[in-house]
Amino acid sequence: MTNNTGSLGAVDAAMALTFSLDGETFAVPVQHVREIIDPLPITDVPNADQVAPGLVNVRGAIAPFIDLRHRLGMRPAVLRETSRILVLELTLEGEMTTVAMLADDVDDITETTSADLETVPDLGVRWPTEFIKGVAKKDGALVILLDVQTAFAPKPSH
Amino acid sequence: MNAAVDSFVEEATDILDGLEKILLELEADPTNTGTVDAVFRALHTLKGSGAMFGFASLARFTHPFENAYEQIREGTAKVTPEIIQLSLASRDHLQRIIAKGPDAENSDIQDPTSLKLVEKIDVLIADQTTRNKSTGAIRAHSTQSQRFLITFKPHESDMRNGMRPDLLLAELEGLGEAHVTCSAAGVPPLRELDPTVCHFCWTIELTTSAGRDAIDEVFIFASDSAVTVTPLAPDTIDMAISQPAPGMERNAIGSGRMLKSDENLTAAPPKSDSVRVQAHRLDELMDQLGELVITQARLNRISADLDDTSLAETTEEIERLVTGLRDATLSIRMLPIELVFGKFRRVARDLSAELGKHVQLLTRGGETEVDKNVIDSLTEPLVHIIRNSIDHGVEAPDARLSADKPERATIVMQARQSGGEVLISVSDDGAGLNAEAIRQRAVSRKLIDEDQEVTDEQLHQLIFEPGFSTAEAVSSVSGRGVGMDAVRRVIDDLRGTVEVKSQPGRGTEVTLRLPLTLAIIDGLLVRVGNNPFVMPLSTVEECVELPPDETARQSGRSILRIRNKLVPFLRLDTLFGFERVENDDRRVVITSVDGRRLGFVVDEVIGQHQTVIKPLSVYHRGIEGLAGSTILGDGSVALILDAAAIVKRAQAAVRTAA
């Protein structure tokens, strides 16, 4: 499946997982998503960057916990019943890294085609546009496709 | 590359490593016949197996060198410094040839480096041998042609082991005029035919001037095969009637000696009962073991919760087994440090020759065992240290003489185990560090203030500061410290420490302290606030109570008196920016780092914990004071503290505050 979407994605359509953060709907390409699990206890890492404030135990492997809300300038998360942890696999600084992030809710898997995507106008959003690949309309609502490489980068580019 | 070629490359690499060592030994003691034999055997094995696995150019290149050492063995040539130099260069070249992989089919191109080296060795040996009359005589004998009848039947397993009869036959043909007949008499009916066995046998009538030895050499790696070599009466009139006796004698001596060297050859590789395992398989084993240790911790916890006697017994039993398995697995990964030390004899030799200094490198404690991953990372920092010693520490010969020192400098590399650590020191008897130059440099780099009082000892450690010594200028001014920050970086990554001691005019000693293993450690589990942390037990000396008046003290003083010794301490919650939890019963974990004692205030000492170290991700790797993370029995994640780094961090904080 990964192969399939990967090759298609470059040209035309890509499957993306949508989730919500602070009322907005975001999407990440499904090939980066390893699993979706219930919230886990987080161990604080002292003196860490607020983007990666802690560690979690994902089935025996230790993964950094990424606070995407902090990076996007949102309010700190409040755990709800629908909250889930997304476990993503990313290549960061040339290294395969498994990271965990908290979403308020996980919605759906959706297909985005490059035709659907629009670039984000600089002033239309309150978060840095470099984290965003584009915006698509799905069933009348906006879906913000994240650029995982910049959104999860250990050191922000700006 | 197929598996056979891979294993040849591995073995050849081992042989070349050994060869370098033997050549350096030979340089020290040029008349030792045992060493000469060893060189010959190494070359011979390379040539033979190289040809067998398709490294034809390697075999061709090795041949003249093997010949040269044969001459030396026979006493018709002598070991000279030029020969050693050339042999070392050839060894390096062989390494390059092997790295290139097997030759393409039928390629006959010799690269220019090979040709040049071969020409040099030929000239060197020829020079010596023409001066030697008896050699001339023997060479004359060997030019006489002899006839041999050779029968050759490969052993059942030979084909499976990758032997190529065609190559052997081609090699025979290369010795002279060969008439080869093949017999298919041994081929069984198709039903019984095993296609992996060679059923043919060959008869070769060979007319050659190369002598019996050369034939034996062709078959040296076909020792399982049935080979007979029978000398025939010469059918040519080349051999003068007046000379039959010497010819026969040569033959007799030849085969006699060959017999002897045959014994040597079989005796040469010490019969080891070891198994070659690829490193990644060991890593996998280690990973699995790590998971097992973590699961074990969970089981312990469940067992404690359930409080069932039979479960507790079984759990204890499993714990004992897991600990045994851990120790056994860790010991597999331990290698003698001699493996790295060996490389440095060459580095020291080449560098001292290049710089015109006389240096001898002595190694001690090479049998000390260290984790393979540690060994792999050690080469680079040790090269830096030795380079520094020779380049900047050791004085020029005349300067040494006028300072009443022996002209030849001595560098000692020493390894020993101390508790959970391995200590590796490199000491020289050179000029020592120039404290004044370091001070100036440190002031200009703003590492210290101009009027700051710093002891020489503290000054010396500054050579490890990043950016201290990247500039060329420092080596000409202070005469020390190129790339020492790189050394410290590697050692830090290995969770080790490095320190330097120096006495002006007497020499310098750099000591590396490294953990025995990188994967699993015994740790002390503590709690700071609500967060669990693990401290490596190897750094912990003792735990004491924090006296209540110290908790209340606000004066900023943080020193404890333990058995009449003053020990400074740090509050981990302050250091980590945690909110302080009200607690009247704090503990201080006293650690010893680089011989200095320092206490860490924690809220609770939970107990000993076998800790599987998981490296931190790119997000957290740069945080000072954290050595990794681990999973506890209840599934939560704990961070592993790096006491040494925290001490440094605290000192830096004090420095900036002051």
Walk me through the structure.
The complex is a heterodimer of chains A (158) and B (658). By secondary structure, chain A is mainly beta. Chain A is built from three helices and eleven strands, in the order αββββββαβββββα. Chain A has a six-stranded mixed sheet with strand order 3-7-8-6-5-4, with no helix packed on it. In chain A, strands 9-1-2-11-10 form a five-stranded mixed sheet. In chain A, β5 and β6 form a beta hairpin. By secondary structure, chain B is of the alpha+beta class. Helix content of chain B is 47%, strand content 22%. A five-stranded mixed sheet of chain B has the order 6-8-9-11-10. In chain B, α1 packs antiparallel against α4, α4 runs antiparallel to α5 and α13 runs antiparallel to α18. Chain B is flat, with a radius of gyration of 33 Å. The two termini of chain B are 62 Å apart. About 9% of the residues of chain B have low confidence. At the A-B interface, β4, β5, β6 and β8 of A face β20 and β21 of B.
Spell out the key features of this protein.
heterodimer; A: 158 residues; mainly beta; OB fold (Dihydrolipoamide Acetyltransferase, E2P); six-stranded mixed sheet; five-stranded mixed sheet; 46% strand; disordered N terminus; B: 658 residues; alpha+beta; Four Helix Bundle (Hemerythrin (Met), subunit A); Alpha-Beta Plaits; 5 domains; Bact_Chemotaxis_CheA (chain B)
| Biggest pleated-sheet summary of chain B | 5 strands, mixed
CATH class of the largest domain in chain B: Alpha Beta
CATH superfamily of the largest domain in chain B: Histidine kinase-like ATPase, C-terminal domain
Spatial sequence of strands, sheet with the most strands of chain B: 6-8-9-11-10
**Averaging pLDDT over every residue of chain B, what do you get?**
77
In the predicted model, the low-confidence regions of chain A spanning at least 5 consecutive residues are: 1-11
Q: How far apart are the first and last residues' alpha carbons of chain B, in Å?
A: 62 Å
From the N-terminal CA to the C-terminal CA of chain A, the straight-line distance is: 35 Å
Backbone CA Rg of chain B: 33 Å
User: Strands across the major sheet of chain A, in which order?
Assistant: 3-7-8-6-5-4
Q: State the total count of DSSP E strands of chain A.
A: 11
CATH class descriptor name of chain A: Mainly Beta
**What CATH architecture of the largest domain in chain B would you give?**
2-Layer Sandwich
Beta strands of chain B, count: 21
SSE topology string of chain A: HEEEEEEHEEEEEH
Count structural domains of chain A.
1
Sheet/helix structural class of chain A? mainly beta
**How many domains in all of chain B?**
5
Helix content of chain A: 10-25%
Main sheet properties of chain A: 6 strands, mixed
User: What kind of oligomer do you see?
Assistant: heterodimer
